Amino acid sequence: MADAQRAPVTSSRAPSRREFLAASAAGLVALARGEDGAAVRAQPREDSFGAHGQSSADSDLLYIGSYTDGGPPEGIHIARLDRRSGKLRLIASVNGGANPSFLAVHPGRPVLYAVNEIDEYKGRASGAVRAFAIAADTGAITLLGEQPSEGAAPCFVSVDRGGRMVLVANYTGGSLALLPIGANGALGPAAQVVQHHGTGADQERQSGPHAHCILADPTNRFALSADLGVDRVYVYRIDGQSLRHADGGDAIMRPGSGPRHIAFHPTLPLVFIANELDSTVATLGFDRERGILGPSPREIHSTVPEGWTGRNYPADIHFASSGRTLYVSNRGHNSLAVFSVAESTGALTLDQVIATGGDWPRNFTLDPSGRWLLVANQRSDSVVVFERDPATGRLTPTKERIAVKSPVCVRFLAPVK
User: Fold this and answer.
1) What is the DSSP-derived secondary structure letter of residue 412?
2) How many Å apart are CA 223 and CA 331, to the nearest integer?
3) Cis peptide before 295 (omega within 30 of 0)
């Protein structure tokens, strides 16, 4: 296993989402009253990317979602990455409500969506979802409105590929919500709520369903949802602005694996699942015509080096646009696992495991050029830049990083090519 770099374990206990869900009283009051959640704390400043943070041909705008519990109320951060040098600069920080942890960018409009990962919204057992208009000149965001997520602790948000609806996974209680998108990008009330059922093998973490993501497939005909609590990946047919369960389409994962996040191969009919509870990535076949997974994994690979025995919890998973490299983040081992992907079969080989330069790496992303990879280290309050070899997919550390309190999710405004 080439160049495996061992990172220290910083916590021996299992992570509890409850650590992050209790929003501060002030944050809850502001959210419930609909107070201005888009006030910019730090105005865009002049830097190497041009006056007032405006776009240039060589830089890309990105947004960072974070937890606000016990810290400043500004939980959405705006930054720019220089494509030539990898230099990363923080432009502004914005109040996006309590715990604006996970983000999504509309595929065709300048609109940003954020979940407020809280347990209670306006006296109900629900989190919230906010929509923000993005200014074309500066990237500043303005609140368009908010809606309840119809379930507590929403931990994932995505937009279908047609840009018609927002899809939300509510971790606590294990439900999904579909919210229609209006003409200006604002959200309507949830048009549908889908409840998952069941338990898993891990009595502590799988006593009930815990929907952890929902993502439309490349054809936009189906949406897949990984449920950590029941060891199942659900398949739903997108029918207009509703979800219909695809009978016989679900994949049953290995007991106690805890499926968390999903990545579709760019060209092959394959889906890859990052499993939080057993530190693996699983490969599933996917019939894109009928919407049928698996029904069980073709391959299962560890995301940590052979022989390593500490506690680890994979978080995020993404492909390079070529489909030749797959990346998975490891919390606990504090690393990124880099897999080469066989061109014809999709078979995985672990090529590199590299330390993330911080503690508890959550989500990460590739920049639109594919040259840089950015990772959010939640517990060490940093977003770190790696240089990526486009030929091999391997990563090299850089000195570029910015300080952000409890970062969770990184999203570029420009589409990743």
Assistant:
1) E
2) 26
3) yes
382's tokens: 């940093």
Query: Is residue 100 a contact partner of residue 114, using CB atoms and an 8 Å limit?
Result: yes
- d(CA 114, CA 101) in angstroms, rounded, equals 7
Phi, psi of 28 (to 5 degrees): -65, -40
Question: Is 155 buried (19+), middle (13-18) or exposed (0-12) by CB count in 10 A?
Answer: buried
Q: Name the pairing type of β-strands 222-227 and 325-331.
A: unpaired
Task: Give Cβ neighbours of residue 293 (< 8 Å, ≥ 6 apart).
Answer: 224, 233, 235, 249, 250, 251, 271, 284, 285, 286, 287
Give pLDDT, residue 415: 64
Q: What pLDDT score was predicted for residue 17?
A: 55
Q: What is the spatial distance between Cα 356 and Cα 44, in angstroms, rounded to a whole number?
A: 28
Residues 6+ apart with CB under 8 A from 135: 110, 141, 142
Residues 6+ apart with CB under 8 A from 138: 44, 52, 53, 54, 91
Nearest-5° Cα angle at 265, 374 to 116? 50
Give the separation between CA 222 and CA 239, rounded to whole angstroms.
9
Distance CA 364, CA 267 (A): 22
Pairing of strands 111-116, 100-105: antiparallel
Mean pLDDT per 10-residue section of the chain, whose length is 417 residues: 35 42 34 38 38 62 96 96 98 98 97 98 97 95 98 98 98 97 97 98 97 98 98 97 96 98 98 98 97 96 96 98 98 98 98 98 97 98 98 98 98 77
Q: Which three-class secondary structure state does DSSP give residue 211?
A: strand
Asked if residue 214 lies in contact with residue 168, where contact means CB atoms within 8 angstroms, the answer is yes
CA–CA dist 415, 417 (Å, integer): 6
Are 294 and 251 within 8 A, CB to CB? Answer: yes
Residue with tokens 């490969």: 283
Contacts of 341 (CB under 8 A, 6+ apart): 265, 319, 323, 324, 325, 326, 347, 348
Whether the CB-CB separation of 302 and 279 falls below 8 Å is answered with yes
User: How is residue 300 written in tokens?
Assistant: 């299962």
> Cβ(76)–Cβ(94) under 8 Å?
yes
